[in-house]
Amino acid sequence: MDTTGLLALGAAGGSLRGLVDAYNQVVAWQAARRDHRRGPAAPAREMPRLTEYVDPLPDSVATAFHMALGAAGAAMFGLSGQITGAYAAIAVGISAPALLTQLGRVQSVSEAVTGVVAPAGAPPPPRLAGVPDQEETG
Questions:
Q1: Phi/psi of residue 72, nearest 5 degrees
Q2: Cα R_g (the chain), whole angstroms
Q3: What distance in Å separates the CA atoms of residue 107 and residue 29, rounded to the nearest whole number?
Q4: Dihedral pair phi/psi, residue 113, rounded to 5°
Q5: Using one digit for the tens of pLDDT, what is the confidence trace for 87-135?
Q6: Where are the domains positioned within the chain?
Q7: pTM for the whole structure
């Protein structure tokens, strides 16, 4: 699959993620209205408004970011040969925020073994051949 197709399908997956978020907000609003109607003081209180559950501007911005992350994730996975096909590109687009967050948290082997986290961009410490590190001798 070409890069344009990967980007488009990944963005489509990201937009589906935004639709799922909007759906969850509308369902929460619906449940609040239902609870209100069943409550003891239903006529006295005002019904919950949709605007208390949905905020169009931030939700639209979040959907745009989901689409960008989906497009980038599908392109990365597709161009590296880890996925093939439209369904996989859409699935990566939907799950891109979670996938990319997990990739950002991957420990290096030395961090996992020694428990020492090197600062980002720091060069590895110099090592002399045949001389054990202090951790190995202590």
A1: -65, -45
A2: 24
A3: 40
A4: -80, -45
A5: 999 999 999 888 777 777 776 666 666 666 666 666 665 565 565 665 5
A6: 3-107
A7: 0.66
Cα angle 51-53-54, degrees, rounded to a multiple of 5: 65
In 3D space, the residue among 110, 138, 106, 134 whose CA is nearest the CA of residue 124 turns out to be 110
Closest C-alpha to 116, from 135, 137, 102: 135
Within 13 A of 27's CA, how many CA atoms are on the CB side? 6
pLDDT tens track for 3-31: 999 999 999 999 998 898 899 999 999 99
Residue 63 phi, psi dihedral angles, 5° rounding: -65, -40
* Residues in CB range of 66: below 8 A, 6 or more apart: 14, 15, 17, 18, 96, 97
| DSSP for residue 54 | -
| Residue appearing with tokens 């960008």 | 68
